[in-house]
Amino acid sequence: xxxxxxxxxxxxxxxxxxxxxxxxxxxxxxxxxxxxxxxxxxxxxxxxxxxxxxxxxxxxxxxxxxxxxxxxxxxxxxxxxxxxxxxxxxxxxxxxxxxxxxxxxxxxxxxxxxxxxxxxxxxxxxxxxxxxxxxxxxxxxxxxxxxxxxxxxxxxxxxxxxxxxxxxxxxxxxxxxxxxxxxxxxxxxxxxxxxxxxxxxxxxxxxxxxxxxxxxxxxxxxxxxxxxxxxxxxxxxxxxxxxxxxxxxxxxxxxxxxxxxxxxxxxxxxxxxxxxxxxxxxxxxxxxxxxxxxxxxxxxxxxxxxxxxxxxxxxxxxxxxxxxxxxxxxxxxxxxxxxxxxxxxxxxxxxxxxxxxxxxxxxxxxxxxxxxxxxxxxxxxxxxxxxxxxxxxxxxxxxxxxxxxxxxxxxxxxxxxxxxxxxxxxxxxxxxxxxxxxxxxxxxxxxxxxxxxxxxxxxxxxxxxxxxxxxxxxxx
Length: 476
Prior knowledge:
By secondary structure, the chain is α+β, with helices and mostly antiparallel strands. It is about 25% helix and about 25% strand. Helix 1 packs parallel to helix 5 (about 200-210) and helix 1 packs across helix 8 (about 425-435).
C-alpha cells in the first residue's frame, strides 16, 4: 500500500487557493469545473492523476494506440484542469543542444517537432511561434563553461553545431548588440525554440479527448476538483485510488503529478522535490510596437549568471505577439535565488515571493535592451508555480514496480520530475509511458536511457547530493 505517511520533504496536495496566472485569464468554458459524469466512476481501466501536459499527452497517445483506444480512462485533477505547473510556466519550449548528451538532445528536438506538428495539423489556437532562443551569459565563468561543453559535445555530436552558435563580444551578424544583450559577456543562440500559450495547448488536447467520446460509457472521463489523497494496492487485484469524493478501482494508474508525487508516494520525497518558481507578465515600454524604432523581440531568452544567481537559477523570457491595442506582454520568470530558501521544498503556490517579483520587474530592463533607460516595468500578473526537481536532473518514466522499494507495485506508472524543463520533454515522455502501459517493453520505446525508472538508477541517484545542497552549490 502507498498511503499518506508523512516524511521529511514530502509534498502537500495542491493548495485550494492559488495565485492567478496570466495563462488562466481566458479559461476554457468546457473545462472549467468539468466533470464528465456527475459522480466519480467506481472503476476504470486506466486512471491518470494530473491534467497538465504530461497527463493530457498520455491520454492522447493512449487514444491514438489501437491497444488503448477502447480503454476507459479517468483523469483526476486536484484543481481545475491544467491549473498546476503547465498552466503556470513561462510559455517557453526550448530544447537543449550543446550541454546535454546526444540522445537527450535528439529526444528534446523530436519532442519539439511533435508539438509543432500537432499544433500545425490541428490549427491549435495556442499562439505557437517558432523562434530561436538566446542563452545570454552575464557571468564569464558560466560562459566559459558553456563554450567548453559546446566544444566537447560537438566533437561527437554534429547536431550541436546544427542547433547552436556561439556569440562573443567580437561576433558580428549577429552581435551581442544585435541580440539586444550588449551587457552580456557572451551568448549561445539555439534553434529551434517556441513561445506558446501552454494552457490553451493542453485545453485543446483535453477538449478533443472529450469530443471523441462517442459511447454512453464515456471512455475518457475528466474529473476536476477531485484531489487524490492516497493509493492502495489490493492483493492480486486493482489499485484503489482514494479521492476526496470517493474511491475508484483501476488496473493501471499513471502519476503525472510532477512536484506533488511524494504526496502519494512518500518514498519519492528525496528523488522529486517541489520547488516554487516566480513568473510575471510585464507590460512592455509604451513605445515598443511593430514598425517603430523599438520593435518587439524576435527571439526568446534565457539569462544565466545575473546577480547572485548560480547556474541552476536562470531567468527566462518570451514576448507575446502584439494584437490590436494590446498584447506584447513580456513573460519573464526566474529570480529564484531572491525567493525565500530559493523556493526549495515549497509546494504551496497560493502566494508569490515578493523579493523575486521585484527582481523580475527591475532586472529585465538591465539585462535586455528595451530602450527604456533601464526603468522598472509594471506587471499585469504576478504568480507562482511548483516545479518538480529530480535528484539526478532527469525525469522519471516507467513502472513503479514493487522491487524498487518506492511504495509501488504492478500497474503503477510514473512520468514526473522534469526539473523546470518540462516543455521539451513531457509530450514524448508521456508517449513512452503510454506505450509501456500498453505492453511495449522499455527497451523498445523512444526514451533516453537516463529517464528510465530502474532500481540501479534509484540507487545511483541517492548517492548524489540532495537537491537543496546541489542547487546551492550550482551543480548536481
